[in-house]
Amino acid sequence: MTKTSPSPEAIAAWARLVRVSRQLVERTEDALKANGLPPLAWYDVLHELAEAGEGGLRPFELIDRVLLAQYGVSRLLARLEADGLVEKLPVSDDGRGQTVRITASGREMRRRIWAVYGACIAERMDARLSAQDLKTLASLLGRLRDPPASD
Amino acid sequence: MTKTSPSPEAIAAWARLVRVSRQLVERTEDALKANGLPPLAWYDVLHELAEAGEGGLRPFELIDRVLLAQYGVSRLLARLEADGLVEKLPVSDDGRGQTVRITASGREMRRRIWAVYGACIAERMDARLSAQDLKTLASLLGRLRDPPASD
DNA sequence: TTCATATAGATGCAATTGCATCAATAAGGA
DNA sequence: TCCTTATTGATGCAATTGCATCTATATGAA
Question: Which nucleotides along chain D are within 7 A of a protein C-beta?
């Protein structure tokens, strides 16, 4: 049987984790808004598509990468396409699906978001923890991933 | 002038932080739903009100504690009240405001949520990191708080 | 007192999200 | 081939959230 009662240390670490990450994300979203830029989720998708290169990605491949539900990806892509940041291509060997590719203005938008996003990360992470501490933090967090081997 | 370009270590730690906390919270929300229980936000409010005791809290005092916007608190309290989990009392020396107090069924609901929530924390934190590592994690996260002294 | 400003909380409306389901194609067994 | 089931992606509808604004009371200066 599984342990059902968390230790005080686990509770404290959990509370910090949830609270701090929410604060960090929220402040970053605020910074983006203040600069008239779209939400972080847009960056995530543009980033994945930029990494994927010319071949693009199928929408279902984005689901795990950006941690969105299927319908979330579907609608986010619709908005990105409406803004001309991505383009959808039919895929030859599967009549159901499509391939999504980032456009030139998509890359441009990604750069503009990163200018703000990257500054937030530098300001809130580099300015507060040493490179060594950042590595330790990433390593500890890595052990909390679920399932333990993914991400 | 402020540094605007984050280190690779900062980017890696940030990515892990955001991703892991989202996964953890999402899976906890799923567990609550699977047990027919309300979202985590309800627990947060019930927890704060339980800690506050008989005196209760003013709605505006909940804003920073549960990291919700003013209208978010207003509407969440309305739902909690509709479910009989909290009660609103007029406050004598300020005709604008009210005091919110947890009810008996509110305390009961808090217990029922904790049975699931606490198990999630134990399973995802205690089972993966030692008490010492949990302390280290909490300490590193503490340095990311903003402003550095609050929380 | 009187008026300007600040604070507490609620709410109309638009945008977003979640849930359930749908349509269309694919895959695989009888 | 035919039929059942699985997969891909979209969408109608309800619930939630964000934004802007509103009402009501409080506070403080003139």
Answer: 7-12, 16-20, 24-27
Tens-digit pLDDT profile for residues B55-84 = 999 999 999 999 999 999 999 999 999 999
CB A88 under 7 Å to nucleic chain D: yes
For B:92-151, CB contacts with A below 8 A are: 115, 118-119, 121-129, 131, 133-138, 140-146, 148, 151
Domain ranges for chain A, please list them.
Answer: 27-141
User: Could you say which of 3.10.50.40, 3.20.20.80, 1.10.10.10, 1.10.275.10 is the CATH number of the domain covering B15-140?
Assistant: 1.10.10.10
φ/ψ of B143, rounded to 5, equals -75, -10
Closest residue in A to B145 (Cα–Cα): A20
Strand pairing partners for A89?
A99
Position B136, amino acid: T
Using CA atoms, how far residue B151 sits from A26, B68, B147, in Å, is 15, 14, 8
Q: Which of B141, B143, B146, B151 to mutate to test the interface with A (most CBs of A within 10 A)?
A: B141
For residue B5 the two structure tokens come to 């370009």
Residues paired with residue B88 on neighbouring β-strands, in sequence order: B100
Of A16, A18, A134, the CB nearest to B142: A16
Name the 3-class secondary structure at B89: strand
Whether pTM exceeds 0.90: yes
Class of domain A27-141: mainly alpha
Residue-wise pLDDT tens digits, A82-140: 999 999 999 888 999 999 999 999 999 999 999 999 999 999 999 999 999 999 999 99
